[in-house]
Structure formats: structure tokens, C-alpha cells
């Protein structure tokens, strides 16, 4: 499934000419090809990286202050930047969104969101203290027990699925790596 026409490349980032979508020689997919400079532009998924920070039996959630889904709860996460690893991005996003101090744990969930061209990766994390200093993208950062989670106010399905799997694993006393395709 391709993303909508509106989100596709319109102009060559190298020379500014209007691109054409076609299958280049020695390829098997339609690509943005510049007829002026012959560059082929690949459109690849964006990585969203974040953490599932835990303090005793509580998890940290952030109330979004930005669209999409402003006013809904999420795990601290955001787009990975060039020049950083997934774990570095997850640490940065947790600091930026929640102002939380954490010890990063294992990669916990990988969620493919094909419809919007994203892959969401969440790491388990242990809060080293409960001091939170949310940044401008967050209205409030708060700890929730499982019974207190505002399930009907969770911003994204990837967050909901990650939280559900976390609480299931916690009950079993064993944490694995979870993958899912979100349609």
C-alpha cells in the first residue's frame, strides 16, 4: 500500500525539478525519479523511538501538547534523528518529553504502522527518580498504576498495544520482544 499522493515527493531535493513516478531499470518498485538529473529518490519509513519508563508498579505517561492527538496520553517517544541510534533517540525523547531520568533496558516492542510509513520501537526503562520536568510538547507527565491507565484516552494504538503487552509480561514475570503490524 502506498501513502497518499499528497505525501509523496513532488520535486527533486537535488535540483528542484518535478519528479516522475516510475519503475527504474534494475528495480521492482515505483520510485520518484528526476527526469532532469536522473536521481532516484527512495521513500522509506520513519522510525519513532521511545521508552516505557517504570517506577515500582507504575508506568510513566505524557499528556500530549501537540498534534496529532493533543490532549491524549502517550509514552515518551518521537522521531529518530539522523546521527543517533534507536536507543539514543529513545533516551533523548524521554528527556525532552518527560524530563525523566532513566536507565534504558531492553528493546520491548516493534510496531509496524504501514499506513503512515512508520516503525515504532519502544524500550523498557527504569526511572532512577520521580522528578519529572516535561518539555513544551507535554502538558503533564505522570505515573499510573495499571488500574489507573486512561485506556480510552491513549493517543496511539502502538502505545496501547505496548502497554497491554507490558502488563501481560509483568504478570508472567518475564519480558520478551513483541512485534505487531498495526493496520
What secondary-structure arrangement, pairings included, does this model have?
Layout: E1 20-22, E2 31-33, E3 40-41, E4 46-55, E5 58-64, E6 73-74, E7 77-79, H1 86-98, E8 102-113, E9 118-127, E10 138-145, H2 157-172, E11 178-181
Explain what you see.
There is one protein chain. The chain is of the alpha+beta class. It has two helices and eleven strands; from the N terminus they run βββββββαβββαβ. It has helices at residues 86-98, 157-172, and strands at 20-22, 31-33, 40-41, 46-55, 58-64, 73-74, 77-79, 102-113, 118-127, 138-145, 178-181. Strands 4, 5, 6, 7, 8, 9, 10 and 11 form an eight-stranded mixed sheet that branches. β2 (31-33) and β3 (40-41) form a beta hairpin. The longest helix has 16 residues, at 157-172. The protein is elongated and about 60 Å long. The mean pLDDT is 95.
Name the features:
11 strands, three-stranded antiparallel β-sheet, eight-stranded mixed β-sheet
What is the gist of this entry?
With 183 residues, the protein is α+β, with helices and mostly antiparallel strands. It contains two helices and eleven strands.
Beta-strand percent range: 25-35%
**Class by helix and strand content?**
alpha+beta
| Low-confidence segments | none
Main sheet record: 8 strands, mixed
- Strand runs, count: 11
What is the number of helices?
A: 2
Query: Whole-number average pLDDT?
Result: 95
User: Could you give the order of the helices and strands?
Assistant: EEEEEEEHEEEHE
How far apart the termini lie comes to 11 Å
Q: What is the CA-atom radius of gyration, in angstroms?
A: 19 Å
**Globular, elongated, flat, extended or rod-shaped: what is the shape?**
elongated
Relative helix content: 10-25%
Amino acid at each position: 500500500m502506498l501513502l497518499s499522493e499528497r505525501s509523496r515527493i513532488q520535486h527533486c531535493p537535488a535540483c528542484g525539478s518535478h519528479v516522475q513516478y516510475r519503475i527504474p531499470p534494475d528495480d521492482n518498485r515505483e520510485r520518484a525519479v528526476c527526469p532532469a538529473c536522473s536521481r532516484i529518490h527512495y521513500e522509506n519509513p520513519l522510525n519513532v523511538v521511545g521508552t516505557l519508563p517504570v517506577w515500582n508498579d507504575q508506568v510513566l505517561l505524557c499528556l500530549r501538547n501537540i498534534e496529532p492527538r493533543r490532549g491524549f496520553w502517550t509514552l515518551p517517544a518521537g522521531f529518530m534523528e539522523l546521527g543517533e541510534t534507536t536507543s539514543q533517540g529513545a533516551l533523548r525523547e524521554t528527556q525532552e518529553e518527560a524530563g525523566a531520568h532513566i536507565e534504558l533496558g531492553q528493546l520491548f516492542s516493534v510496531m509496524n504502522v504501514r499506513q503512515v510509513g512508520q516503525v515504532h520501537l519502544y524500550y523498557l526503562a527504569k526511572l532512577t527518580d520521580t522528578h519529572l520536568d516535561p518539555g513544551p510538547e507535554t502538558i503533564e507527565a505522570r505515573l499510573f498504576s495499571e488500574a489507573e491507565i486512561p485506556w480510552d484516552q491513549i493517543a496511539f494504538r502502538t502505545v496501547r498495544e505496548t502497554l497491554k503487552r507490558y502488563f501481560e509480561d509483568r504478570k508472567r514475570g518475564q519480558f520478551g520482544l513483541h512485534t505487531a503490524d498495526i493496520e
